[in-house]
Structures are given as structure tokens and as C-alpha cells.
Amino acid sequence: MSIDLIPAVILGLIFGSFFNVVIYRTPIALEAKIKGKTHRSLLEQLAWPASFCPNCKNKISWFDNIPVISWLLLGGKCRQCGTLIKLRYFIVELLSAIIFSYHYLKFGYSFEAVYWVVLFSILIVLFFIDAETFFLPDFLTIPLIIWGLLGSYLGIVNIDFYHSIIGGITGFLVLYLLNLSYKIYRKIDGLGAGDFKLLSALGVLFGWKGLLPMLTISSILALIFILLMTVFKQQKFQSTSMIPFGPFLIMSSLFMYANLYILKIF
């Protein structure tokens, strides 16, 4: 590893640790806010209390809170009670270090690097919040739409600003109308409003022409997931069973990113 890359790796690990806090505490904080159980702001609830084990409630010492390293040394378990620590903590910290490092290598210390790091950081947080709670919070999806439009306007995103706007509107309407049709037929929602806003943001980033490939890929990935769930659980996936669609949309967006900015297949 090049010495000048070390700060980017360390910064990625630190932010990855913070992203884990956001992923864990955001749904809890927003639910408490909705139910009127707290008057503290989301920022206050993210900042305090200090990190603790969700099982035994013991405060986590600084030497057990070193990104990636502590998880490995502890064998993925709490030192106090031995409860398994989710693999997600390790994955998010590692992914964040990779994202920070990759964009530093590509753009150096520049606004372009910051732009893509912020974008992918939001996607990571959204991915795991939705995967764990079926929730895509507005305070992340709406800024993602704005951030995408800013990137298109400044020429950082390789999509014309006009096409970004059309992509954002179309992305929202496609899932909104699809859900409306499903609701009329089944009397229940098939998708959440967060999915509409997420696809809107991805439409902004990759244009209206990218919507069909993303929807196709995400649908295929969701079907594969359902098949795997059926095989490993050895039971049929019920028609009323729910799966979060956001993670599959985000994974499909990675294909679009790779195609536009790395592989350039078509």
C-alpha cells in the first residue's frame, strides 16, 4: 500500500464506523420520534449515548471499537456477553475504506472524489437500513436526489442535466404507478414510498435510459434471492412475504456505475 493512500483508508474506516451507528440508530430514533417517545433530534440520538452492546448494554471500550480490527480480534463477538456482532459492522467499515481509497486513487484529494464518496456512502447506509428494517428514510433519499442533480449540473455525472431531471421524474412515477396498480388489485402496497424516491435518485444519476436496465437487474436479483430463501428454508416463499427492494436497486446501480465509468461496455 502506498503511504499517501493510508489517510484515505483510515478516513474510510472511521466513517464506516460512523455509518454503522447511523444504520443501527436511525430507524430506532425515527420510530421513537413518530411515537412521541423522545423530543431529541435525530442528530442528538446519533451522537449519544456512546457505543454499547445492544444485548448487554455495556459501553464498548475504545480498544474494542477499532474499525475492522476489533471485530476480527474479538471473533465477531461482544467481549462482555459473547453475543455475536453482526457481520454488517465489518462489511460496512471495509466497504467504506475501499470506497474512500478507490476514489482517492482515481481523483486524488478533489471535489470529484468527495462527490462520489458522499454518494456511495449514502447508498451504503440506505442499503443496510432497508435490508434490516424495510425503511428508506427521506433524510437520505431526498438529499441523494439533490446530490445527483448537482453532480449532473456540474458535469461530474456523465448524464446531461435535462436527462437527469427526466430520469428522476420517470423513476419516481414508474414505481409509484406500479405500486398503485398492485394496490388496486391486492388492496395492499407492494412497494414503499422510499423505493419511489430511491429510483428517482438513481434515475437522476443514470438518466431515464438507465431505468429499464436497473429495474431488470434488480428484479432478477430479487428473484434469485427469493429462490435462495426458498431452497435454504426448504419452504415456499409466501405471496405475503416481504423483501426489501432498495438493496437490489442499489446493487443494480453499481452495474450502471461500472458500465458508465469503469468498464464502458455499452
The end-to-end span amounts to: 33 Å
Uncertain residue segments: none
pLDDT averaged over residues:
87
Structural class: mainly alpha
Proportion in helices: 55-70%
Layout: helices, strands, pairs:
Elements: H1 6-34, H2 42-47, H3 69-73, H4 87-107, H5 111-133, H6 138-154, H7 161-186, H8 193-206, H9 211-233, H10 246-263
Helix pairs in contact: 1-4, 1-5, 4-5, 5-6, 5-10, 6-7, 6-8, 7-8, 8-10, 9-10
Question: What can you see in these coordinates?
Answer:
- The chain is mostly helical.
- The protein folds into 2 domains: 1-109, no CATH class; 135-266, no CATH class.
- The protein has helices at residues 6-34, 42-47, 69-73, 87-107, 111-133, 138-154, 161-186, 193-206, 211-233, 246-263.
- Helix 1 crosses helix 4 (87-107).
- The radius of gyration is 20 Å and the shape is globular.
- The two termini are 33 Å apart.
